[in-house]
Amino acid sequence: MIRSVRFKSTLAILLVTVFLMLAAAPDGLAQRRHRRPSKTKNVAVGTAVGAVGGALIGGRKGALIGAGAGAGTGYMVYRHKKSKYRRRQ
Asked: Is 59 helix (H, G, I), strand (E, B) or coil?
C-alpha cells in the first residue's frame, strides 16, 4: 500500500516537472508552417457537421437542410482562410 502511494506521488511529480519544462520552452523553437487551405476539406467538414446537427434536431429532412447549410458555411470558412493566407505572403 505504501509503495503504491509512493509510486503514484513520484509519477505525479515527474509528470508535473516534464509539463513545466515543456511549457517554459520559448515559442521560437516551434516550427511554423504556412499551408494553403483546402477547399475540399473545409466543405466536407462543414457538410458533415451540418448534417449531424440537422439530424439531431430535425431528423432526415433536418439532416439535408443542415448538410446544405454546413457546406455553405464550410465554403465561407475556406474563403476566409484563403484571404488570410494571401495576406501573409
From this structure: helix
The SS3 of residue 67 is helix
Total of domains in the chain: 1
26-61 pLDDT, tens per residue?
665 566 676 777 888 888 888 999 999 998 888 889
Q: What is the extent of the structural domain holding 48?
A: 2-27+36-88
Q: List, as one string, the DSSP characters of 7-50.
A: HHHHHHHHHHHHHHHHHTS-GGGS-----PPPHHHHHHHHHHHH
SS3 1: coil
Q: What is the spatial distance between Cα 27 and Cα 74, in angstroms, rounded to a whole number?
A: 30
